[in-house]
Amino acid sequence: MEAVEKLKSKADLHLARKFWHFVGVMTIVIIYHNVDRVTGLKYSLTAALVSCVVDISRIRFEKFNNIILYFFGSFMRESEKHSVSGNTFLLLGAFVTIYVFDPEIAKLSLFFLATADPLASYIGVKYGKDKILGNKSLQGSMAAFVCCMVIAAVYFYSKNLMVERLVIVSLLAGLIGAASELISVGKLDDNLTLPILSSTFLFILFSMFGAF
Q1: Taking a C-beta distance cutoff of 8 angstroms, is the pair 73, 4 a contact?
Q2: DSSP of 54-95, one letter per residue?
Q3: What is the mean pLDDT of the chain?
Q4: Domains of the chain, residue spans
Q5: Which tens digit of pLDDT belongs to each residue from 81-113?
Q6: What is the DSSP string of 168-201?
Q7: Inter-CA distances, 142 with 7, 40, 138, 148, 172, Å
Q8: Exposed end of the chain (fewer CB within 10 Å): N or C?
Q9: Dist. CA 153–CA 207, nearest whole Å
């Protein structure tokens, strides 16, 4: 079985990957919402470990790598052919977020990861003319801001969290989501850093405005 010769890069729209990303993270949120925290941790850790084992195995064994690329290459990037995939970083980021942070914070940050990250990428590739940090664009960051602000407003209202300050906390949450998507932490994958950064800043927001 031959591997896919050429995979997509960050410069491509790569809609299949964005759909896979959205569905994958939303599945994590739905499962976590319907189980207790300990069970959620077990599931997320198991998924992350399985993904790690698959990545290490395919990097080490070419034939196995070719099989994975044959079936899942449409969701992967060229840079992931012989390195750890974004899927593993995503699952590790989800596990750390669920382990460290309050469930309400973890779920909101995962909503940000599911929506803002692929939307910012799409807008950035298609319309991003003004680069502000690396390959990140002003247009992509604005899309992430609006997306996170709307999601936060709906989330806070539905959970009856800080509703007396809904406008300001939603605006700040939008900034948190956009900043977390924009910031690069060394060479770490943003699927890992985005939920952790956004959860950290959301914890500060929740504490400042009395959500706890």
Answers
A1: yes
A2: HHHHHHH-HHHHHHHHHHHGGGSBGGGTTS--HHHHHHHHHH
A3: 93
A4: 15-208
A5: 999 999 999 999 999 999 999 999 999 999 999
A6: HHHHHHHHHHHHHHH---TT--HHHHHHHHHHHH
A7: 28, 32, 6, 10, 13
A8: N
A9: 17
